[in-house]
Amino acid sequence: MRKPLIAANWKMNKLVEDATSYGEDLIEKLKAENVDLKKVDVAVCVPFIHMAALKVIFLLRGVGVGAQNMHFAESGAYTGEISPAMLQDMGIEYVIIGHSERRMYFGETDEECAKKLKAAHAHKIRPILCVGESLSQREAKEHFDTVRRQLTGCFEGIGREDAAGTVIAYEPVWAIGTGKTATSQQANEMASFIRSVVEDLYGTDTAEQVIIQYGGSVKKSNIAELMSMSDIDGALVGGASLDAGEFAQIVNFDPDVVGKEQKVR
Ligand code: 13P
Fold first, then answer.
1. What is the pLDDT of residues 25-74, one digit of tens each?
2. What are the tens digits of pLDDT across the range 157-166?
3. pLDDT value at position 177?
4. SS3 of 169, please?
5. Banded pLDDT at 258 (limits 50, 70, 90)
6. For 225, how many CA atoms within 13 A lie in the half-sphere containing its CB?
């Protein structure tokens, strides 16, 4: 049974005061929605400066805190960077790696993502690895090749156990922040392709275990349908996660779907 993971990605948003009130509000709203955190994992991935406050608010409440990036080195002369050891020291549970905005604006490569994946696992931080094609790649029918190339590059040198513990988020670039969600069929088709690539790389057991999220204009109105698909085990939510009430409703997507049967293609 794959336990769903619904994660918020705030991106570069919110000031300290907003972050604190969001944290308290989210706990209240999850309670009001009767969300059973034994059945669904929830994480909020925030700018570094908000992590300490949220760790305190979420303490013993079952909501994880995640970073949106990190360096792969343990420590050293990397001005402006945050290391995996620092995140682990703070009790951070998740880290987003290879988000398309980091690939696009900061030139992050698959090779760097592989180093970050390895470092995250070495520090017991669960990575959420983002993959996905651009609009022109989809139009040129290169989306499967693109995603396969990203996965092969990012998993280079990663062992089977670490692969199984890596969350993969399929985020088609054309659906991010555009209001244009991939159809649930398109999203599931790619999620199932991703599972087949993991199977090629690591075997069936690993493919069955790996959590695959969809991300790109996820909101409360489309989450239930996305989550009903065979290979979609969660969501990485940008804009709609900025409101604690809407995010709690997304987390509470459909209790009947939680714990759905494993299906490998
Ligand atoms: P939106 O939900 O705002 O489209 O962002 C998706 C995303 O990039 C999550 O990482």
1. 999 999 999 999 999 999 999 999 999 999 999 998 999 999 999 999 99
2. 999 999 999 9
3. 84
4. strand
5. very low
6. 12
CB of 181 closer than 8 Å to CB of 223: no
Q: Is the CB of 176 under 6 A from ligand 1?
A: yes
68 lines ligand 1 (CB under 6 A): no
91 contact partners, CB below 8 Å, separation of at least 6: 55, 65
Report CA(84)–ligand 1 centroid distance (Å). 24
Q: Is the pLDDT of residue 176 over 60?
A: yes
Burial 32-50 (b: 16+ CB within 10 A, else e): eeebeeeebbbbbbbbeeb
Question: What is the position in ligand 1's atom list of the atom closest to the CA of 218?
Answer: 2
- 124: tokens are 């017991």
- Strands 41-45 and 167-170 turn out to be unpaired
pTM of the model: 0.95
Which uninterrupted H or E stretch holds 167?
strand 167-170
Rounded CA gap, 226 and 106, in Å?
Answer: 30
5, 209 in Cβ contact below 8 A?
Answer: no
172 lines ligand 1 (CB under 6 A): no
177 lines ligand 1 (CB under 6 A): yes
Considering only CA atoms, which residue is closest to atom 1 of ligand 1?
238
244 vs 237: CA distance, rounded Å? 12
